[in-house]
Design a protein that fits this description.
439 residues; alpha/beta; Nonspecific Lipid-transfer Protein, Chain A; Rossmann fold; 2 domains; four-stranded mixed sheet; 17 helices; 17% strand
């Protein structure tokens, strides 16, 4: 009997909950071609549901998440169960995340759905004494997020002020929390992040004595690099107290107090006109909010001198202003509560409306996938160390978040672009004729 016929005659003669669960799993995953196994309980039966030897095992300590998967197939419920400690992921987390695509694309006839639904109703936990990890969740409805100064400051703190020591475990030596730039796929993360910092400086054509502003400067890596290697006077702003403290300390350690400075400041509070020769913004505009993009770009335009260069580096997505996707809901609830993404074409349009002249656009999508996989590997290697600074739930959130993003960059759901633009001044173009100065 083929899988289709078997599904149409689905029945559950088993009386125990675990027996029912096993039959449900075998039925639902009859057409799954991945390499996955499911274990019911820490030492329970393992059910191989894929077509090849499994490199990942989902361990359900409680049957509720499995029941929810049938009754209310919402990937966020499974993620939440993992963060609570009701389900574990052993082995390759990417395999577990790729299962989502199979479940979302699964089309079952109505009688079969009804049979599965009845079977799932019968699943109950014989022993519900399972440890629950403390979770870290953004507790404000998404409809409340209006990107006010206070809300943005609180949201940035939620993400970046977890612990500098936690980030230090898996970031590179300079604490760069954005897409690296790999000369080859085997390059170290430290070297690839140095490549990225230098690429930005070359694109901006930084010259000794120029004034550089870095909007959203993070832990200060770019402003420090630009001052040390290109002789500029660099200023960075951030809303994260932890990032600010680290950057100030690092600047002092390197003796750069007279050439590099950082402030705890919102970009909307920056004053002046034509103050800077060059402006960079790396991984910042994702926090701005789509409605605020005109203000964000007009602020950069106002602060830049005529003919000055502005490099905007940020993430985009393949769905314009999409807020209904599973990925958006997950990130908004657990990771980036104020994040909003858009098409790269809309980002460029807003820049042009602010009278920026766009000179260069480069996609770094493949680079971000490599970066994220390195971050995940480093975080997994420091699992026990991470628990000195965060809870198990926070560790699991960050691991799943970064692994999921890696897959989204690999399949093109998300992209990342560096857009180089100049403030128009109706003068002869003072730019090289080729891109050779960038490479």
């Amino acid at each position: 009997m083929d899988a289709k016929t078997d599904r149409m005659t689905f029945s559950v003669p088993e009386h125990s909950s675990k027996g029912k669960a096993r039959q449900i799993l075998q039925h639902v995953f009859a057409g799954y071609n991945g390499s996955l196994a499911v274990r019911l309980g820490k030492d329970g039966e393992t059910v191989v549901v894929g077509k090849s030897p499994p490199d990942c095992v989902l361990v359900f300590h409680r049957l509720q998440p499995l029941r929810d998967m049938i009754l209310a197939p919402d990937p966020l419920r499974l993620a939440d169960a993992h963060f609570r400690g009701w389900a574990d992921i052993e082995g390759n987390i990417y395999t577990a995340l790729e299962m989502r695509e199979y479940l979302q694309s699964l089309k079952l006839p109505l009688p079969e759905k009804f049979s599965l639904w009845l079977a799932a109703l019968g699943l109950s936990d014989e022993d519900e004494r399972v440890a629950t990890h403390a979770r870290r969740v953004w507790d404000k409805p998404l409809t409340m997020i209006r990107h006010s100064r206070d809300m943005n400051r609180e949201a940035i703190g939620f993400h970046y002020d977890v612990s500098n020591d936690f980030y230090r475990l898996w970031l590179d030596e300079r604490m760069v929390y954005s897409c690296a730039y790999f000369r080859n796929a085997n390059e170290s993360l430290d070297d690839a992040q140095s490549n990225k910092l230098d690429l930005i400086c070359r694109k901006l054509r930084l010259q000794p004595g120029e004034k550089l502003l870095d909007i959203g400067c993070g832990w200060g890596a770019l402003v420090i690099w630009a001052a040390r290697h290109y002789g500029v006077e660099a200023h960075g702003i951030t809303l994260s107290r932890n990032q600010y403290n680290h950057a100030v300390r690092r600047i002092r350690e390197l003796g750069l107090e007279g050439r590099v400075s950082v402030e705890l400041k919102d970009y909307r509070d920056l004053e002046g006109e034509g103050v800077y020769d060059k402006i960079s913004s790396v991984g910042m505009f994702e926090h701005v909010g789509l409605r605020n993009l005109p203000l964000y770009f007009s602020t950069a335009h106002r602060l830049l001198r005529d003919g000055g260069l502005f490099l905007n580096h940020g993430i985009t997505q393949d769905e314009m202003g999409g807020t209904s996707t599973v990925g958006f809901k997950f990130i908004s609830k657990y990771v980036f509560p104020d994040g909003e993404l858009d098409w790269v074409s809309n980002i460029q349009r807003e820049m042009e409306r602010c009278t920026f002249e766009i000179h260069d656009v480069e996609s770094l999508r493949a680079h971000y996938a490599l970066t994220l996989r390195q971050w995940v590997g480093r975080l997994e290697a420091h699992h026990e160390d991470a628990l000195q600074y965060v809870t198990e739930a926070v560790y699991r959130i960050w691991r799943m978040y970064m692994a999921g993003c890696a897959l989204q960059f690999e399949n093109g759901e998300m992209g990342v672009y560096q857009i180089l633009a100049a403030k128009r001044n109706r003068q002869p173009l003072a730019m090289p004729l080729t891109r050779s100065y960038m490479t």
